[in-house]
Amino acid sequence: MIRLILPPHLRTLAHVGSEVTLDVEGPVTQRSVLDALEARYPMLRGTIRDHVTLQRRAFLRFFACEEDLSHEPPDAPLPEAVASGKEPFIVIGAIAGG
Length: 98
Description:
The chain has three helices and five strands. The longest helix has 11 residues, at 30-40. By secondary structure, it is of the alpha+beta class. A five-stranded mixed β-sheet has the order 2-1-5-3-4, with helices on one face. It has one domain: Ubiquitin-like (UB roll) (Roll), CATH 3.10.20.30.
């Protein structure tokens, strides 16, 4: 089971608590985790990744094991601690402004 933490606005949209657990088939990557999330919660399609390009939305960041994974390739394996469920994959809403 993969543990996933979503920002408050996406939790509200999906009607979930602070942490979601997902079964991911095959290698555990950003793409496979987000594919599983969008399959289980279709209302989140297009909120984390663009509908067409599947690129991460500009004001969202991905973290795991205290590392920013936002610019990692989507098919790169996530850390073993995430794949084993020890650590969560975290989606954070970026803060912008001045």
